[in-house]
Write a structure and sequence with these properties.
Radius of gyration: 18 Å
Oligomer: single chain
Structural class: alpha/beta
Order of helices and strands: HEHEEEHEHEHEHEHHEHEH
Largest sheet: 8 strands, parallel
Number of strands: 10
Number of helices: 10
Strand order of the largest sheet: 4-1-5-10-9-6-7-8
Length: 309
């Protein structure tokens, strides 16, 4: 019987791979009868609701290309990804329909989670795709998002399914207790009111600069059986990450971001999945793609390190 991964996914070009031989989307183990992948990766090439700079649909390919050209040994976590079987299943077909994209992303994620073989990571694409992937995870999985924007508008551009509204849709469906937002520095009054009324927890820019963010992140994440980590690359200052769909000045540094990301490998924290979104190769020097690839490498390594804890 055809699975949703078989139906929606298919790769072309260089896919991310680990030590296990590659296999088709529906193959649970490797082609030599191995134990199967340590994690799944797939792409969502979608940017139909962009409001500033189109081109994020080309992000998944750029992340993969950069991943093949960085070192993936993480001595601080005791993980060498050259020995980790990563199963990249390629990209979903491009569509301009937010509804179709969200439904397909949710179905693919549910399919891959049902195999019980490890975390699921999505490469975007704009942030709206996260509404499909995160809501496929069981209730009770914590949601940590790194983003320059709150994305809590009720509507944007006269539509309710938009990269600027996705977190509001998640909050309406899953509640606010499961959400931690990190790094917002540009938002509307409507969003701030919703955030305060809903009690969504945050780590502010000042918390990051003062050095308290890793502890605050650890306290939040360790209160859940597992967490999903979403990285919108515009959380970084555009001096470091120019290739994004909606750049905002005065962001955090890569050193600060990776200090928080590595916290996800702490004892008592299990990484169930995550995503990296809003990479726009059309405006990139290569620096943003390299950062995105390192975030993916760090997420996968953290999932392996925390899985052994």
């Amino acid at each position: 019987m055809m699975s949703y991964a078989d139906l929606y996914l298919g790769g072309s070009g260089p896919l991310i791979s680990g030590s296990a031989p590659s296999a088709g989307p529906g193959d649970g183990g490797d082609s030599n009868g191995g134990a199967g992948p340590a994690c799944f990766v797939f792409g969502v090439p979608f940017d139909a609701t962009h409001s500033y700079r189109p081109g994020c649909r080309f992000g998944p390919g750029a992340i993969r290309s950069a991943f093949h050209n960085i070192e993936v040994f993480h001595p601080e976590m005791g993980v060498d990804l050259e020995a980790v079987p990563i199963r990249d299943l390629g990209d979903m077909p491009h569509t301009a329909s937010p509804e179709r994209m969200i439904d397909a992303a949710r179905r693919v994620t549910e399919d891959l989670l049902s195999r019980g073989q490890g975390p699921v990571f999505m490469l975007g694409g704009e942030h709206l795709a996260t509404y499909g992937t995160y809501t496929a995870f069981p209730r009770g999985v914590g949601y940590v998002v790194f983003d320059a924007h709150y994305d809590l508008r009720d509507e944007y551009g006269d539509v309710r399914l938009n990269h600027a509204t996705y977190l509001r849709r998640i909050a309406e469906e899953r509640g606010t207790d499961c959400i931690l937002h990190v790094g917002a520095r540009a938002f509307a009054a409507e969003e701030l009111a919703y955030l305060r009324d809903g009690g969504i927890r945050t780590i502010s820019d000042s918390d990051v600069r003062d050095g308290g963010a890793p502890r605050m992140l650890r306290d939040f994440a360790s209160s859940f059986d597992s967490v999903y980590a979403s990285f919108d690359l515009d959380v970084l200052d555009p001096a470091f990450a120019p290739g994004v769909g909606n750049p905002e000045a005065e962001g955090i540094t890569p050193r600060e971001l990776f200090g928080m990301a590595r916290t996800l490998a702490s004892d008592g924290i299990r990484v169930a999945g995550g995503d990296i979104v809003e990479l726009n190769p059309s405006y990139d020097t290569g620096a943003t793609a390299a950062l995105a690839a390192k975030i993916l490498s760090t997420l996968v390594a953290a999932s392996q390190s925390s899985g052994r804890a």
